[in-house]
């Protein structure tokens, strides 16, 4: 190879490197958007991404298939047992403290969050980050948050959220974020209330798809659409939970010495050894639609037993069944029609993964992706070094990138 040719390649590679380092990365989450909702044919904007980028058959959540554990797995590359947000509601039997997603002071307390989130990794390496709502983005420690963030407000108008993101992208270059995430709840909210097959959920699917269109058009309007890598995903799916599938677990255990924590797809039980052994036998003998495990028996494939806050006994309902206690079981009560949190191997619990932009292959379809692999992918897209002690693997996902 002659000298000039080599020099040309070097300059070319350098330019590509410099240029690619400047791509923006936008991560959008549609809460509870089940893997197969796009087949409802209500999503022209997701279809646009499918045609021009990458679509996975499904995105497998980590266990349990709930909102906070999975949003945090996505931004840390860690299973919930390792980032410590093992559920939306946590009981710490060692301190007697509780964590709940509706308790603002717990949600902002850094002690619960043991994983390094993408914005922390990025900030350490000089990248400006921003979040328009994301679990874990409001921690009360400045360096663990995105540079720009919003305190969660459930009813904040969706267009306002997109406008907020576009405003960040119009900031002067030295203040402008290169990584931005945003979040929309409505598909999950309606999926719970009316069930995954309802007209209301279909309308919610249309709503978030059109807000995606609004974002894509907004990026075009400000002239940066071509330099944005855009990922649209969801944290988990949704399944129907008919009222005929309600189980009163308190009735089966019938021992007030056992603390039953949680409800719905799974519960944690805490207590003294004799009481626990008795509860375990009663649950096994009841032959109802759930699995019961001493903590040490929780199957490896859940990646869920290695956390001190997991119950002494863990009870997991079969798909669609709800574990409730006396106080929740009221005659003629209307139960929610959909839920998630079940076995993450069940396809109903799977979400979506779409990606488009200069770094992604075009018109490329892949199988199921695990959500712990997203964090190393985000790091690769931002050209930064990921936190080393993670569960996710870039090797399992990098084939969706152009090389
Ligand atoms: P889930 O119970 O798993 O369906 O949780 C979904 C709910 O989580 C949404 O309806 C929101 O109300 C709530 N949520 C989502 N993001 C946040 C956040 N950043 N802070 C507080 N609550 C949130
Ligand atoms: Zn969710
Ligand atoms: Zn939900």
Number of helical regions: 12
Low-confidence stretches: 9-20
Indicate the structural class: alpha/beta
Q: How many domains make up the 3D coordinates?
A: 2
CATH superfamily of the largest domain: Alkaline Phosphatase, subunit A
**Radius of gyration from the CA trace?**
22 Å
Q: Which percent band covers the strand fraction?
A: 15-25%
Give the distance, in angstroms, between the N- and C-terminal Cα atoms. Answer: 22 Å
Order of helices and strands: HEHEHHEEHHEEHEHHEEEHEEHEEEEEEH
Describe this entry's structure for a reader:
The chain has 403 residues and is α/β, with parallel strands linked by helices. The chain folds into two domains: 2-240 and 353-400, Alkaline Phosphatase, subunit A, CATH 3.40.720.10; 243-335, Gyrase A, domain 2. The chain has helices at residues 3-20, 44-52, 67-76, 80-83, 104-107, 118-124, 158-169, 186-194, 199-221, 249-253, 273-286, 374-382; strands at residues 24-30, 54-60, 89-92, 97-100, 129-132, 148-149, 179-184, 228-233, 239-240, 246-248, 259-261, 266-270, 290-294, 313-317, 322-324, 338-339, 353-356, 364-370. It has an eight-stranded mixed sheet, with helices on both faces. The chain has a four-stranded antiparallel sheet with strand order 11-12-14-13, covered by helices on one side. A two-stranded antiparallel ribbon has the order 3-4. The longest helix is centred in the middle third of the chain and has 23 residues, at 199-221. The protein starts with a helix and ends in a 21-residue tail after the last helix. The relative contact order is 0.21. Mean pLDDT is 95; it is low at 9-20. It binds adenosine monophosphate and zinc ion (2 copies).
